[in-house]
Structure formats: C-alpha cells, structure tokens
C-alpha cells in the first residue's frame, strides 16, 4: 500500500521534521540542580522510599517529550490529509432536486400517483443547501439555494400540471444552478430519451446526477391524442397504448360513438359541438385520467345573423357568406326599415339617396350593443355614414400597389391583390390591416364601445379579389370578427399554451387568475366576462405512460443509469486537528501539575 492510498497530501508528513529539534533540545537540556533542605529531608526521603522506582522516574522524565512528539505527529498526519472512501452522497452539502411535474406523473399505480411517490422521495434528498427545479415551462426554478425548512415547504407545495413537461430543459437548468460539488437528483418517469443529452452534459462537467424513476400503472392506457374542428363539428382521435383489444365509448353532449381499438390502434369519431362549454369523455376510464377527457369551448350562440344593405345585391358577397356554416344572410334594399336582431350589418353599394338615417342609426346601435358594422368601398360614398366610415374619402384612383399587411387573425395567410381602382383617403380612426402603396387603407378595423367596425376598400366590380379562392375565407373571418365569434380552433387549446385575455380576471380549473395572459397548465374551461376557452392534453408522447425501466433499457438511458455509481474520499483532517488540540491540552495540564506553569 502506497501513501496516496490513505493520504490526499503525503507531502504534509514533512512536518514530522519539527520533532527533531524537540528531541535535540531535550537531549542538550542541562539537568536540574538539586538543593538539599535539611528541614524537609526526612519527609521527602520517607516518601520516595514508599513510591519511587527507577522505571517510573524515567517515564516521568520522558512523558513531556512523548507528549510533544505526539502533538507534532498528529498535526503532521493531519496536514497530509488522511481520508477514507465513502459514497459521494454522504459528502454532499448542496443538492439540486428536479421534480417532474408533467401530466404523465399523475398516472395512478396501487393507490398512489407517480408524482406523489416522487414528492415523498424528494423530501429525503434535502440537504443543507437545496435548490428545486420543476419541468414546467422548460425548467422552472421554484427554490434557489434554500434552507432545509424552505426546501421541505416548497416540496410540499408542488402540484403536477396537465401539460407536457420538458425534462431535458429542467436538467439543464439544474446544472446551471449547481455549484462545484453539488449533486443533482432527478425524480421522473423518464418517458422518451430526449433528456439523456442534458444528463451527459451535466456529468461531463463533473456533476453527480442521480436518476430515480417512478413508473408503473400505465401499461394499458387509452386516451385522446388529437382534436380537429370542421364547421360546427369536432373530430376526436383516440389511441390504444395497451397490448390487447379494447372497446371505448366517446360521449360529447347528447351524442356518443363506440370505438374498438387493437394494440397501438388509433380511431376517430366526429361529433357535433354543443353550444357553450362541454366535455368529451372516454368510458371506461383507466389509470391515467388526464387524457380520458377533452374540453370543448364554443359560443353560446353559434349562429351569426348578417344583414346586407345593398342596392345591387352584390352576389359575390352574398354567395361567399351563404357558404359559411352557421351564417344566416338577409339582404335588404334601401330605402327600407331594419327589423329583427342582427349580429353584423354590411353596407355595400348603397345609393346615397336611398340610405335612410334610421339605416345608419341601426348600425351605430348595433356597435353599442357589441355587434359589428362594415362599410364597403364604392364611388360616391354616402356622407350619412359619418363615424361608421373609418377613412376620409377622396377621389377614385387606379394603379395601386399593396404595401404593408398586418399579420392578424383577420389577414394572416391571405394574398390581397391590388385593386384596379380604389377610393383614396386617410384613416380617420382605427388601424389599417392592409395598406396601399400611397398610404390609403385597403382594410381597416376599429374596436369601439364594445363593438367592431371595418372598412373594406375593394370596389367590388373593379377588383379581381372576388374571384380569388381566399375571398370566402376572408369574409368568413370578417363576419366572425365583427360578430365577436371566434372560430372553434381559436377557442380550444392544448395544455401548456398561453392565451391572452386582456387585463381581466379569469376563472380557471385551478381558481381565479388575473393578468394579461393566462398559462393553461390545467385541463378545463377558462372563463372571463367576455370570453371562454378550453385546454386539454393532446400529446401522443405524453399519453404513452407505458415507460420501460431505466436499468432495462439498452440505449443511452440504460448506460447512464449503470455508470453513475461513484465514491469519493472523505478527509479526516478535522479529527486529527482535534486530537492534536487534546494532546496539547494534556501537555499544558502536565506542566501545570509539575509546577512549571
């Protein structure tokens, strides 16, 4: 055995040379001079005859030298840093705990979810300094270098989400927090293998990464993996992750369909969407309840009633609107009175002499009531429109070019062609969605008094846009915007997304939240005063809860598990320093007893 097997710094033994001058000084020290005092001679002689022997006298004379040499020896060995080999976990003072809070951790196994077991294990990993990271938002730091009490409280407050998690990002975040000698503990079901790169990188920095897996209960999962809307219906896709054929019933509102799925099969059903908020459910359920339901949000009144006021019927416009599902079109020719309730009024090619004041006032009242009005460009725009017309009209011009186009829900993906002729002008109010080269708004909108106003700058009989296949698409978006009816895909989201509600209070599955944007971390319906949206887990990989044990994997994940067994030296310097101090105190006590102090 060499010295390096028991000492981290063998050079420290050079301090033993300090014992040489001590011994030399002891040897050259003159003997003490004895004086005879007749008064005490008989008493001392009698005592020596009873207790003194030559051997004990030599020991007594050499004890001080022995103590001094022992102090030097102990301190020299301490400087050489003796150590014993222990598990690295026993020496860690700082720990970074990564807790998987993704949806799949809610899989139930024997009465406990994976997440509950992971939280119990996390409590056991708390050390003197503890940081905690979750898989939410790619690595959310919920505690940084906290005390054991703070760490325990933070762990107790953790809850799983209904959204997919990013384990790789969380491990990378943990590695960035970890100090030089910190240990990272990852508590997860370890679905997939994307996280392996982050573990390899952390270990490449010399960090200890401990992987603790929590699986079970997910070997026969059947769940929703996709949702697609078409007009007023929704198509739901269901996948069987088990290894046997199953039968499931899908129910949405008062409609239900039955599916028979073989192993790894995917089946789909199409169901009508009920008005308001509803929930599609799979029955019977299984151990992973999160993907057994899909929430669906729809307007309370799904139909849009549109009134077209025109003196030429504008067949291109009315035909485009009539093919839009759940849009009811009524055409009236001024002069006429407006009776009935409408969500949208469109003014198209109206004879200025036939337009009644009451026709325009009906538009203003509709905007105040939360509806929408659109004015379409024409020669000689009626002056009676006044504030309903968003531009200050000028002369009719030709040779336009399309300039800037804002990327909004109304215009995104549509190729707006230059008009042959257009009404030039400047914007009175609102904002230009599409602008011509000379600054004239081609499409402009304004939200006013709870309602909406639009200006459409194409003169219908002098524009080729009406022949474009995107023309009906634009008008579908336009009437839905004016009626404040968002299309179904815009109302239904996947968990993990962020939705803007404006600065208001939103009632969600986990309670009330306030702010401009709301993160949809739980599945369910989110409602504000003016809007309702849904969130559901629709992630094929997250629903695959049948994960293989790490120690049985043949790829990178298995190698990472098998190779992470490390031992480290535990220095014993402090114990030798304490021993040297004790010996020094014994020496002082001995000198005091001898009377030298």
Q: Give the low-pLDDT segments.
A: none
* Tally of DSSP β-strands: 31
The percent range for helix content is 25-40%
End-to-end distance: 44 Å
Structural summary, described in words:
With 597 residues, the chain is of the alpha/beta class. The protein has four domains: 10-32 and 50-81 and 571-594; 89-217 and 546-565, von Willebrand factor, type A domain (Rossmann fold); 304-483, Class I glutamine amidotransferase (GATase) domain (Rossmann fold); 489-536, no CATH class. The chain has 14 helices and 31 strands. The strands form nine sheets. The chain has an eight-stranded mixed sheet, sandwiched between helices. The protein has a five-stranded mixed sheet with strand order 6-5-2-7-8, sandwiched between helices. The two termini are 44 Å apart. The relative contact order is 0.11.
Task: Characterize this entry briefly.
With 597 residues, the chain is an alpha/beta fold. The protein folds into four domains: 10-32 and 50-81 and 571-594; 89-217 and 546-565, Rossmann fold (3-Layer(aba) Sandwich); 304-483, Rossmann fold, CATH 3.40.50; 489-536, no CATH class.
Question: How are the SSEs ordered, and which strands pair?
Answer:
Layout: H1 19-28, H2 38-51, H3 54-79, E1 83-87, E2 94-99, E3 108-109, E4 112-113, H4 114-124, E5 129-134, E6 140-146, H5 148-156, H6 167-177, E7 183-188, H7 196-204, E8 208-213, E9 222-230, E10 233-240, E11 246-252, E12 255-261, E13 266-272, E14 277-283, E15 293-297, E16 304-310, H8 315-322, E17 327-332, E18 344-348, H9 357-368, E19 372-376, E20 391-398, E21 402-405, E22 421-427, E23 431-436, E24 441-448, E25 451-456, H10 471-482, H11 488-491, E26 492-494, E27 498-508, E28 511-519, E29 524-527, E30 532-536, H12 540-543, H13 556-563, E31 567-571, H14 573-594
């Amino acid at each position: 055995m060499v010295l390096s097997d028991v000492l981290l710094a063998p050079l420290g033994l050079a301090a033993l040379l300090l014992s040489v001058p001590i011994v030399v000084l002891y040897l050259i020290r003159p003997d003490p001079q004895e004086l005879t005092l007749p008064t005490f001679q008989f008493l001392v002689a009698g005592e020596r005859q009873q207790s003194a022997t030559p051997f004990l006298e030599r020991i007594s004379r050499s004890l001080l030298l022995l103590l001094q040499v022992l102090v030097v020896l102990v301190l020299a060995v301490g400087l050489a840093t003796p150590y014993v080999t222990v598990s690295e976990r026993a020496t860690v003072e700082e720990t970074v705990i990564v807790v998987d809070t993704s949806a799949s951790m809610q899989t139930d196994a024997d009465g406990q979810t994976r997440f509950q077991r992971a939280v119990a294990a996390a409590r056991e990993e708390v050390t003197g300094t503890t940081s905690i990271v979750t898989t939410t938002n790619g690595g959310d730091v919920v505690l940084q270098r906290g005390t054991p009490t703070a760490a325990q409280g933070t762990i107790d407050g953790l809850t799983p989400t209904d959204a997919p998690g990013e384990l790789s990002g969380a491990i990378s975040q943990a590695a960035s927090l970890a100090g030089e000698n910190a240990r990272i503990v990852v508590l997860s079901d370890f679905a997939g293998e994307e996280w392996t790169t982050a573990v390899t990188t952390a270990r490449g920095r010399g960090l200890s990464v401990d992987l603790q897996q929590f699986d079970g209960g997910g070997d026969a999962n059947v769940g929703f993996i996709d949702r697609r809307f078409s007009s007023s219906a929704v198509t739901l896709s269901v996948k069987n992750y088990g290894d046997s054929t199953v039968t499931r019933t899908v129910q949405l509102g008062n409609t239900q369909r039955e599916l028979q799925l073989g192993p790894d099969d995917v089946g789909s059903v199409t169901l009508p969407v009920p008005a308001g908020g509803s929930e599609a459910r799979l029955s019977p359920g299984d151990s992973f309840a999160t993907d057994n339901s899909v929430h669906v949000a729809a307007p309370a009144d799904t139909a849009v009633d549109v009134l077209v006021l025109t003196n030429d019927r504008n067949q291109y416009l009315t035909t485009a609107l009539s093919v839009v599902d759940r849009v009811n079109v009524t055409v009236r020719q001024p002069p006429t009175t407006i009776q009935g309730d409408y969500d949208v009024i469109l003014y198209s090619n109206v004879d200025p002499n036939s337009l009644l004041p009451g026709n325009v006032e009906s538009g203003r009242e509709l905007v105040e009531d939360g509806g929408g009005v659109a004015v379409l460009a024409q020669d000689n725009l009626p002056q009676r429109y006044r504030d309903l017309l968003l531009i200050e009209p000028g002369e009719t011009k030709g040779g336009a070019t399309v300039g800037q186009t804002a990327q909004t829900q109304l215009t995104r993906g549509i190729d707006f062609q230059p008009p042959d002729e257009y009404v030039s002008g400047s914007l009175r109010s609102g904002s230009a969605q599409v602008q011509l080269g000379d600054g004239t708004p081609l499409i402009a909108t304004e939200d006013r008094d709870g309602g909406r106003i639009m200006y459409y700058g194409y003169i219908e009989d002098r524009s080729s846009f009406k022949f474009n296949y995107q023309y009906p698409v634009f008008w579908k978006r336009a009437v839905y915007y004016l009626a404040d009816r968002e299309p179904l895909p815009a109302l239904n989201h996947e968990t993990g997304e962020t939705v803007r509600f404006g600065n208001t209070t939103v009632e969600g599955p986990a309670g009330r939240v306030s702010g401009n944007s709301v993160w949809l971390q739980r599945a369910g319906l989110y409602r504000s005063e003016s809007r309702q949206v849904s969130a559901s887990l629709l992630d094929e990989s997250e629903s695959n809860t049948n994960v293989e044990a790490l120690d049985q994997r043949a790829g990178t994940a298995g190698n990472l598990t098998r190779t992470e067994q490390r031992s480290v030296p535990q220095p014993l310097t402090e114990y030798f320093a304490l021993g040297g101090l004790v010996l020094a105190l014994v020496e002082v006590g001995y000198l005091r007893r001898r009377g030298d102090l």
